[in-house]
Design a protein that fits this description.
The structure is a single chain. The chain is built from 20 helices and ten strands. It is of the alpha/beta class. The strands form two sheets. The protein has a six-stranded mixed β-sheet with strand order 6-7-8-3-9-10, with helices on both faces. The chain has a four-stranded antiparallel β-sheet with strand order 2-1-4-5, covered by helices on one side. Helix 3 runs antiparallel to helix 4 (54-103) and helix 6 (114-157) packs antiparallel against helix 8 (169-206). The protein is elongated, with a radius of gyration of 36 Å. It comes from Paenibacillus ginsengarvi. It is a multi-pass membrane protein. Keywords: ATP-binding, Cell membrane, Membrane, Nucleotide-binding, Transmembrane, Transmembrane helix, Transport.
Length: 590
């Protein structure tokens, strides 16, 4: 229990005023609740001896009404402060998780399932929130409130009766400790299963077209049914332990009642306790039931919160595998990038057993266009990702303006880039919003928007969309064709007018004629700025200033278009084959 509170100590220090007020008011509320039974007991004793009159009755009623009104205001305030803090910690930790997710590199997402990350941001944070709210309430009620009741019962009623009535408490403490350990393990398993289910739902929704195309709907249903059955079984295992708490508490509190009533009657019979004292004691014993229940609830909530905090803490403990240079180590470079140079770069993905790039060396001057060609899996995308610094660097060095990129501030470095990956991602927003997302300033003019649309040859398609630029494209752009998604992505990159534009096979879904227009537009609008184009279609890079041909991560050929044709290697062979295919397509032959 203390472990989970220590893990949240940073939050309690931050919100110490809120929790100080809540705890003080909880204590005052507890004291106020103790007074009415005492007044009732004294009134009964006064009636029993014939000393009760209307004046004392009115005074008792006024006292009870005053205490009730004060308790109402105090309970409202502590409830607002305490449970308001629970929502605050949930918001803070959710924001911290999101910041962490945004800092993480692809390696993190390769090793953590999306469903598990969603479970962290939902179920686990709700469990942490309960710990900071209801958990603190049960902690106070099962400690201070219970101690206050026991002291009152001991001092103002009968220490003998109190001692006898609390005999079941040690048994309760042992049982809830055992239950707590079981809850922790089973709740961890249940949360893991919930993450797996989330991941399965995401995969099914994302791949619904493929599932339907292969008529795998029933198989997907069966698989999901098995996953949900696993989630159900593991949550039932948690509930099974939860269900032990209440009957255990009832049996032990019932035992306390029996002891209190039986032994209390004995003490009254022997004139060691008044009837009013016995009535007050039984009221206090009834009030003691919740603190006894609170012990079980406390262990339950704290164990759930501890399990969730462990899961969240493990995720937050991940360190980005690409180090960010600190302020002193960060190199001082100009606002605009200069030449890009690869010097003997060898790189291997963390999950790979072989080098994915080997001894790659070339230099690209400012304003030049680099074409990157090669077979599928030859390393084209990997080469571009080296500039993005998504993975730890390997051997060799990559420099911009003569400065190693791992010493350049990441925000500055990425502010130079415009990047269109192989797999385009569009947000579930309008076409306009998706394109304007690329404008880092956020205030691109209508003229700049139209220019980006024109350069990406998208204007012709807009007239066929229901609302043109205001058409909502759907999550991941499901309502657009592959070529339309690529052109929206290109427009998004162009509107930023980046110093360095990287197109990673970004024209594969458009026809050859549209591709030629887009490439020509990019060449005209980006005169004097650096562009890297990775492609299978060599017509897209034949006008490039320099072309590198990759084969199994090595540069097999490099040079201008004419130089590569004269070499008579893979580039020439592939170019001629593509030219023949293009001519056949134009002639109507298939």
């Amino acid at each position: 229990m203390l472990t989970v509170l220590s893990k949240l100590s940073w939050f309690f220090r931050q919100e110490w005023k809120r929790y100080t007020i809540a705890v003080i008011l909880l204590v005052i509320s507890g004291i106020l609740e103790i007074i009415p039974p005492m007044l009732v007991g004294r009134s009964i004793d006064a009636i029993n001896v014939g000393g009760m009159n209307w004046e004392s009755i009115r005074l008792t009623i006024v006292q009870l009404l005053t205490i009730t009104a004060a308790a109402y205001l105090i309970n409202f305030t502590w409830h607002y402060k305490l449970f308001g803090g629970a929502f605050v910690v949930e918001r803070l930790m959710r924001s911290r998780l999101m910041r962490h997710f945004l800092r993480m590199t692809p390696t993190f997402y390769e090793r953590n399932r999306t469903g598990d990350l969603m479970a962290l941001a939902t179920n686990d944070l709700q469990a942490v929130s309960q710990t900071a709210g209801f958990g603190i309430l049960t902690f106070m009620d099962s400690t201070l409130w219970m101690a206050t009741l026991l002291v009152t019962m001991t001092v103002f009623v009968s220490w003998k009766l109190t001692l006898a009535a609390i005999l079941p408490l040690p048994i309760m403490a042992i049982l809830v400790s055992i239950y707590g350990k079981w809850i922790h393990k089973r709740f961890m398993d249940a949360q893991d299963a919930f993450g797996s289910m989330n991941d399965g739902v995401l995969e099914t929704i994302s791949g619904i077209r493929v599932i339907r195309a292969y008529v795998q709907e029933r198989a997907a249903e069966s698989k999901f049914a098995a996953v949900t059955k696993d989630v159900l079984d593991k949550n039932i295992a948690v509930v099974r332990i939860d269900a032990l708490f209440e009957p255990t508490m009832k049996i032990l509190t019932g035992a306390s009642y029996l002891i209190g009533l039986g032994y209390g009657a004995y003490l009254v019979y022997h004139n060691e306790l008044t009837i009013g004292g016995l009535v007050a004691f039984n009221v206090y014993l009834g009030m003691l039931i919740w603190p006894m229940f609170a012990i079980g609830e406390l262990i339950n909530i704290m164990q759930r919160g501890n399990a969730s905090l462990d899961r969240v803490g493990t995720t937050l403990g991940w360190k980005p595998d690409v180090a960010e240079p600190d302020g002193k180590a960060a190199a001082k470079v100009g606002e605009e990038p200069g030449a890009i140079e690869f010097r003997g770069v060898t790189f291997r993905y963390p999950s790979s057993s072989v080098d994915n790039l080997q001894d790659v060396t070339f230099k690209l001057k400012p304003g030049q266009t680099l074409g990157i060609a090669g077979r599928t899996g030859s390393g084209k995308t990997t080469l571009i990702k080296q500039l993005l610094r998504e993975y730890p660097g390997g051997e060799g060095q990559i420099t911009i303006s003569g400065t190693a990129i791992d010493t350049i501030n990441a925000d500055l470095l990425k502010s130079w880039y415009g990047y269109v990956p192989q797999e385009q991602f569009l947000f579930s927003r309008t076409v306009r919003a998706n394109i304007l997302f690329g404008s880092r300033s956020g205030n691109a003019t209508e003229e700049e928007l139209l220019q980006a649309i024109s350069s990406s040859v998208l204007e012709g398609d807009l007239q066929f969309l229901p609302k043109g630029l205001e058409t909502t494209v759907g999550e991941k752009g499901v309502s657009l064709s592959g070529g339309q998604k690529q052109r929206v992505s290109i427009a998004r990159a162009l509107i930023a007018d980046p110093h360095i534009l990287m197109l990673d096979d970004a024209l594969s879904a458009v026809d050859a004629r549209t591709e030629a227009i887009i490439v020509d537009n990019i060449r005209k609008t980006r005169a004097g700025k650096t562009t890297l184009i990775a492609t299978h279609r060599l017509s897209a890079i034949q006008e490039a200033d320099w072309i590198v041909v990759l084969d199994e991560g090595r540069i097999a050929e490099q040079g201008t278009h004419e130089q590569l044709l004269s070499l008579g290697g893979w580039y020439k062979e592939q170019y001629e084959r593509q030219q023949v295919d293009a001519n056949r397509s134009e002639g109507g032959e298939l």
